[in-house]
Amino acid sequence: MSYHLRFLVTDPGPLDLDDLVTSLRAANRKYRLEVREGSGTLRLGTEVVGDIQLITQDDEAFEDQLAELEEAASEGSGRGEARVADALATVQTIFAVAVSGQVQGRESLESLDPVWEWLFDSREGLLQADGEGYYDEEGLIFEVP
Q1: Average per-residue pLDDT in the chain?
Q2: CA 139, chain centre distance (Å)
Q3: What mean pLDDT is predicted for residues 111-127?
Q4: Phi, psi (deg, nearest 5) at residue 118
Q5: For residue 75, which phi and psi values (nearest 5 degrees)?
Q6: How far is CA 36 from CA 18, 33, 91, 123, in A?
């Protein structure tokens, strides 16, 4: 079983993954991001941190992902309800990470922090975590069971 996190990119334009790799390597030279045709693997040394998928509006999976997120958000609560609705209405790209059940845990999730920091610094959007809710750069804004 995997734990899923998604950054909903709401501003137009493609993600520059070369910039992400540069940022990750500045944080720790052991980061490796291998992406081909929109999916790949993020590693820290020899450990797999997560499986990455870039889902754009042109991808078949986009509408399915969006429908799942909208359905789950309908059961949520919190001060960020309007921001979440706006993000879901304007999302351009979904940067999805699946963390394997074998590597879940605080250390594994913390190793994703530089990814989220880069996304929040370079793009507009919100971070969604399954079973938790939506986060902005300050923290949890909308809880989704």
Answers
A1: 91
A2: 14
A3: 95
A4: -65, -45
A5: -100, 5
A6: 12, 10, 22, 21
Q: For the chain, give the percent of residues with pLDDT over 70.
A: 94
Whole-angstrom CA distances from 34 to 37, 43, 56, 87, 91 are 10, 8, 18, 27, 24
Per the DSSP assignment, residues forming a β-bridge with 96 are 6, 53
Nearest partner of 65 among 36, 101, 96, judged by Cα: 96
What CA–CA distances, in Å, run from 62 to 41, 96, 101? 20, 11, 24
Query: In this structure, are residues 127 and 135 in contact, taking their beta carbons and an 8 Å threshold?
Result: yes
pLDDT digits (tens, 9 = 90+) for 60-90: 999 999 999 999 999 999 999 999 999 999 9
**3-state SS track over the chain:** CEEEEEEEECCCCCCCHHHHHHHHHHHCCCEEEEEECCEEEEEECCEEEEEEEEEECCCHHHHHHHHHHHHHHCCCECCCHHHHHHHHHHCCEEEEEEEECCCCCHHHHHCCHHHHHHHHHHCCEEEEECCCEEEECCEEEEECC
